[in-house]
Amino acid sequence: MEEIHIILYSILIPVYNVESYLKECLDSVLNQTYKNFEVILIDDGSTDSSGKICDEYKLLDNRIKVFHQTNKGPLATRCEALRRASGDYCLFLDSDDFWDKDLLETINEATMTSQCDMVIYRYKRVSESGIFISNSVSLFKDKSVINKDVLYKYIINSSNLNSLSTKAVKRTIIDIDNDYSNYSSIKHSEDLLQSLVLFYRAETIVYVDKPLYNYRIRKGSITQQVSKNFISDTSIVRGVLLEYLKKLGYDNEGTLGEFYRHYINNILNYFYIIIYADMPLKDKHIAILSARNQMLYMDSLKYIDAKRLSCPKRILYYLVYNDNRRLLLHYIRFVYYVHRIKIGQNNAH
Asked: Any idea what the Cα angle at residue 267 is, between residues 262 and 271, rounded to 5°?
């Protein structure tokens, strides 16, 4: 009788200054109904008690391996965790988030049935205290194999498949020597950056239509902060996506139109996040004008029908496109003050 291989899962957790949430994160792993796993904790130079908590949990369970390093950021830390992994599949867990107790069991059912290269699953949004807010959108039928053409259409037009934290990936398709040193400064869209090579290499991708991952929305987290580097980071990563589209032969006129329209719409939306933010007017001005320095932004202009943009977006689009710095400065100031007046009126009611 053929012996059934018991799949070992490597759970990769970069840790940085999350002392308030780390125990809940680790307990959610240790309480999994499926037990054959290892945990790779990389303490990325934490200055709070996170590193100590990692060491304490290592003593509690021999499946936990802890490594300490000077601060290198989430991208490099994930790469280090991958180099330390020995499992059949790797899963990514942010140290301020947590899992449902049946996550691994559910993933194991999918991998055993399909022998797939990747499993993608859904997540829940929870508050800082862990209270449920909402589920992520359902994209495909449960246990369905995702068609690559459809997959890339989603990647081009949305961010719903970007997160590494909602993927279980067969270790044999991971290039642990992939050099991300040129992207070490990136703090936005790094999940998509690391996902692209996995999408490219995976032959079979299965979708589990069940929210299993609990994504904690924190006011102080990177994803909740306004960043002057968002535009450059997004442009770099979307540029990498464009290269993969070319490799796969998806660079026809229709697909490129979708790609550039989604990109520039994201950038225009972020212009308004910058404008509404409480930051110096000069910094807002510089951040928005920085879009002109991105080759992808300038390349996208020929694909955009400005008449189809909303009036506020059209104004911003033309001011940046024509490099009208003086009018742009006045427009930023005007929109910000109108926004503050509306907030004041709403608070008054």
From this structure: 145
Sign of CA dihedral 147, 153, 159, 164: positive
Cβ neighbors of 68 (< 8 A, separation 6 or more) are 43, 45, 51, 54
Distance CA 171, CA 65 (A): 18
Q: Which residue has the tokens 């006011």?
A: 219
Asked if residue 164 lies in contact with residue 78, where contact means CB atoms within 8 angstroms, the answer is yes
Residue type, 58: K
For the stretch 100-159, pLDDT in tens is 999 999 999 999 999 999 999 999 999 999 999 999 999 999 999 999 999 999 999 999
Alpha-carbon distance 96 to 16, whole Å? 9
Looking up tokens 């940046």 gives: 320
Spatial CA neighbour of 46 closest among 19, 10, 21 = 19
What stretches of the chain show up as alpha helix (H) in DSSP?
22-30, 50-60, 74-84, 103-114, 148-157, 190-201, 230-247, 253-276, 281-289, 295-300, 311-321, 325-348
